[in-house]
Amino acid sequence: MGRVAGKVAFITGAARGQGRSHALRLAEEGADIIAVDLCENIDTIGYALATPEDLEETAALVKKTGRRVVTAKADVRDVKQLRTVLDSAVAELGRLDIVVAQAGIAGMKGEPQIQAWCDVIDTNLIGTINAIQVALPHLDAGASIIATGSTAALMDVAKVDQPGKDLGGMAYVHSKRALSNYVYDLATHLAPRGIRANVVHPTNCNTPMLQSEPMYRSFRPDLEQPTRADAEPAFGVQQAMRIPYIEPEDISNAIVYLASDEARYVTGLQHRVDGGGYLKWYDNHI
């Protein structure tokens, strides 16, 4: 206990799923939490996003740990709104030490496709950059920045069989690759200041994003209306280990490590929590 005691963590996409799990684990280890989420749907995204009630539940769970929490409904695509929310929260809690840029959406099968591309890029890439950059003025030596990537960013999908078929899905891949490059370069230039930046790459994770009709169709394109029971056996194609997915807590454990002083010299890392998925795509690199 207490691995991040006395620290303050800013988490986007905190209302449910991975974001809620990260907020709770960091609070359990002693951090106060700034939790933000859009808390409304996006038309091109084929599954329901988090609600204000979800964000309230995250806050209640954090409070049960005895830590302070500040919540706000905020859109990572709107940098001015995000900056206002964060500046106010930091003024209330007194400092900022940890940034977890978690907010993200999956636009697979989204329509209209051009808008789906834009919504995913604006949220996953630009929204991640916004979250990090509004936080930078508040960070001092010892701070930790962590962005959520995806094993989709690491897969060899250079050959596109049908260009333009699923722009929302390709935007997801591109956004995660681009944010990985952004964080890598940022880590290089923040290192002399003692500020660390890393990316965590989950494989399939058991959240509403994975357990959704568009994702089921992505894994079972042979079926018109696949169910979870239809899709779940196919989830295993992503991992070398014999699992269909990981749980949010599996990623949160990596987040806690990277946020803590245990990782004080760890920066620029592309940290995979992927059940060996990367091993299926690439030969050994030393």
UniProtKB/TrEMBL annotation:
Keywords: NAD, Oxidoreductase. It comes from the Bacteria. GO terms for molecular function: oxidoreductase activity, acting on the CH-OH group of donors, NAD or NADP as acceptor. Belongs to the short-chain dehydrogenases/reductases (SDR) family. This is Mycofactocin-coupled SDR family oxidoreductase. It comes from Nocardia bovistercoris. The lineage of its organism: Bacteria, Bacillati, Actinomycetota, Actinomycetes, Mycobacteriales.
